[in-house]
Amino acid sequence: MIGKGKSISHTGNAINYAVEKHKAELIDKHNLIGETGKEVEAEFKMCQNLNGRCENNTLSFVLSPSIDDGEKLNDANLLGIANEFLEKMNLSSHQAIILKHQDKKHKHLHIYVNRIGFDGKAYKDNHIGKASQRVAHEVAKSKGLTCARDVEELNKENTKGIRKEIGQRMDQLIKDHKPRNFDDFKDLCKASKIDLFPTINKKTGQFQGYRVGFDQFNFKASEIGKKFTLSNLEIAFKSVKTLRVNKGFSNGF
């Protein structure tokens, strides 16, 4: 099971979207009467008005069991998962609405929780995403469900051979052709049927890493090998530049 969480400010719109989506079902409510986004938002505001300093005053969570697990889980099971998650997150006493979505056999939960308690205090949302992942893992373990971490470790083991082959190919390209920069290296890899997909930081717009595609596989550069991370590649490119300059070649990139 995968858990995601974040703080939001657009409570009504978010809940309306979740409620009105095809095959959405209300599983449960905590300390609430209303069911629509507008109704829930109005009830949330009764507590939120006690704390005018908090802007992102609603917590939005998504809990996604594996497809196989989801097929076996009924509404009572899902409610048990949601309630245990909220308890472990120390949010059982907060207002909350729990909704089920089922998209193409993928059953998952949306949970919207008032970040402001009845005492007017704001729930601390530091690292809320990481906390959601950790608690979802704990709940999955306690319920005997497939854990995202276990799947990740299994995938690593099953793809060890293909990652080794990709690494050997990329390493040979560097040794044979001594690319001077990432663009050179990307072109060389493409010619060898390996695609490199740059990762751009959304806030800064800067190039911060890349992923590696081969056949139907897609990996982080670090999963291929530490020597292929962007920082280590840049060191390798600089050494090529120094070598060319020392031999009297142009140092232009």
Task: Fill in the keyword field for this structure.
disordered C terminus; 2 domains; 8 strands; Endonuclease_MobA/VirD2; MobA/VirD2-like nuclease domain-containing protein; single chain; 3-stranded antiparallel beta sheet; BirA Bifunctional Protein, domain 2; 5-stranded antiparallel beta sheet; 253 residues; alpha+beta; 10 helices
Helices and strands, in order, run as: EHEHEHHEEHHHHEEEHH
CATH fold-level name of the largest domain: BirA Bifunctional Protein, domain 2
User: Separation of termini?
Assistant: 46 Å
Q: How many helices does DSSP assign?
A: 10
Share of β-strand residues:
15-25%
CATH class annotation of the largest domain: Alpha Beta
* Percent helix range: 40-55%
Write down the overall mean pLDDT.
Answer: 89
Question: What's the CATH architecture name of the largest domain?
Answer: 2-Layer Sandwich
**Main β-sheet description:** 5 strands, antiparallel
Secondary-structure-based class equals alpha+beta
Q: Overall 3D geometry? A: elongated
Multimeric status of the protein: single chain
Count of extended strands = 8
Model regions low in confidence, pLDDT < 50 over at least 5 residues: 247-253
- Overall number of structural domains: 2
Major β-sheet strand ordering = 1-3-5-4-2
Radius of gyration: 24 Å
